[in-house]
Amino acid sequence: MTQCPLPLLPQDLTSLLTSGRVDWIRSGGRLALAAWVLLAVSTMDLSAQTTPSVDLSTCSQITAADGVEIEYEFDQTLGTSQDIDPFGPTPHEVVAQMIKMAKVQKDDVVYDLGSGDGRIPIAAAKQAGARGVGIELRSELVEESRETAEKEGVADRVEFIESDFFAKDLSEATVVLLYLYPRTLLQLRSKLLNELPPGARIVAYNYGIEGWPRDDEQPVDNAESYFNGTLYYWVVPANVSGSWKGTIETELGETHTFTLQLSQCFQKVSGKVLRGEREMPLNDVQLSGKTLRFTIELPGDESLHLVATVNGHQMEGHARRSSPETQGQPSATRMQWQASRDPDTRTSIDPAQN
Is-above-0.90 flag for pTM? Predict the structure, then answer.
């Protein structure tokens, strides 16, 4: 993301940083910046930490069972005195790492929200052959981005839109790259979950999305800036919440019906299968994009391992048995299964919307 959430520095330091004067940082300015950081830390009121405003109580049982803790580690007060996040270019080394972490391919559509000088969409087009879309509110930066795309020979693969990204539909994006203040990321959270297709990848630099457990993270080694930072990675999950009516074809050609009841918080899922009067909890539930996996314990020390692809209110896939005879490994025989959801039972997977 090139709409950079710089710390709130004294005006002379801020102007030098946002001007791209990395030579200043590499020389004597590094000492001045370090002195400011030490001063800021020494005067910080650590007792006045921001209390999370998001109610995540509906997630507690799911995340506790999975050993996942909802973390609040990002200062929501950053940038609150400004209408929009200030612009500062994302270092080129970081841009390359973001593109690599997101596994950008030629058929991807890469969105940069608050695209600044356009370097992320342009890099995605040059490095991976992807189509890039930048959304930026400042007209002068939009014009600069278009001129740079022409010079770099990728104007046919990138588009820059002068707009507020909260007002734009994000549904065509398969990758979103972000460098924004924590409070802006938190405001974006539900929009990303609701509009991006399942399986879309998100990478954010320096700040995570409060409350949404990340799927991965990695440090960045950045020679262009005083700060190294961290990259955070998510795969947008399908919404599988609700009540599903399913059928499964056994090895003997018999058809069995069942009900699958699922609760979901972000990418964390729990649930149970109902068949007649029997209730069986789901174990080892994993949801990545549109792929759902879980295991059901059966009588006689047998287990049923199910995997399905989710498409809206439908899912279908296969199941395999395991038993002591197979040493706990799923058998080679696959049984087809499918399920349909009652649309009225679907709930938001972002607890802030429930």
Answer: no
User: pLDDT tens digits, residue range 218-272?
Assistant: 999 766 655 668 999 999 999 999 999 999 999 888 999 999 999 999 999 999 9
Six-digit token string for 87: 């612009």
User: What is the sign of the dihedral through the CA atoms of 231, 263, 351 and 61?
Assistant: negative
Cβ(347)–Cβ(354) below 8 Å: yes
Domains of the chain: 69-235 (3.40.50.150), 242-345 (2.40.128.20)
CB distance 176 to 192 below 8 Å: yes
The answer to whether residues 181 and 4 touch, using CB atoms and an 8 Å cutoff, is: no
Residue 164 CA to residue 286 CA, distance in Å, equals 35
Contact 295, 306 (CB under 8 A): yes
Buried b / exposed e over 304-335, threshold 16 CB at 10 Å, is bbbbbebeeeebebbbbbbeeeeeeebeeeeb
Three-state DSSP class for 149?
helix
